[in-house]
Hints:
With about 210 residues, the protein is of the alpha/beta class. The protein is built from nine helices and six strands.
Amino acid sequence: MSLSSSYPSPSPRAPFRTLGILGGTFDPPHYGHLALAENARVQLKLDRVLFAPAGQQPLKSGQTPAHTDHRVAMVRTVTADSDAFALSCVDLDRPGPHYTVDTVSLLRDEYQEATFYFLLGGDSLAQLLSWRDPAGILEQVRLAVMRRPGYEPDVDELTRALPRLPERLSWLDVPSLDISSTDLRRRVRESLPLRYLTPPQIEVYIQKHRLYVT
C-alpha cells in the first residue's frame, strides 16, 4: 500500500492553476516552513502549496531521518487547518534516491494544467548547481526563493550556468525566522523547549513518540 493511500487527502482533487511545491525532510516541520508556504501562497496567488516530504535526499545521505510514518503524520498535522496546504507523498511512494527534477516531473504529470513554483531558501538556491539537472528543473518550474540570513546566492554566477534563471526566479518577502529542523532535534536531545519554534501539536507529537531523544 502506498503512503498516499495510507494517508488519504482531506479533500477531493480539484483543478489547480498555480501550485507551490515545498520539499524537505520535515524532521520536524516548524514555523519557518509554514511562514514560507503562507507567504508564497499570498504573494504568488497559489491555489495550493504541496508539502512533499523527501525520502532519501542525495545531498543528505549521511543523515537518518525519523521514520517516514512520523514525518508524514507531522506534515499532515501542520497542514490540516488550511485548505490551501496539502501533503504529497510523491517522493515516498517510489524508491530512492530522490532528485528534485524527478519529483517535479511526477507532479507535473499529476497536475497537468498547473503552473508550478518550487519554494526554497536562499541557502538552497546557492547550491542549485550541485543538484541533479538544474536546467531541467528550470524547464519545469519557477523558483520562489526566501532569503536566509548569512546566505547571499551569487545569482550572476548561477545565471552564467543557467541562462533561464532570471526569468524563472521570484524573490519572496518572508519574515526572517532562523529556525532549522536540525536545531530543533538538538534542542530535543538537550531538553530545551520547542515552544514558539514549531506548532504546539508538533511538540506534543514529538514528546508522545519520543522522537529525537537519542
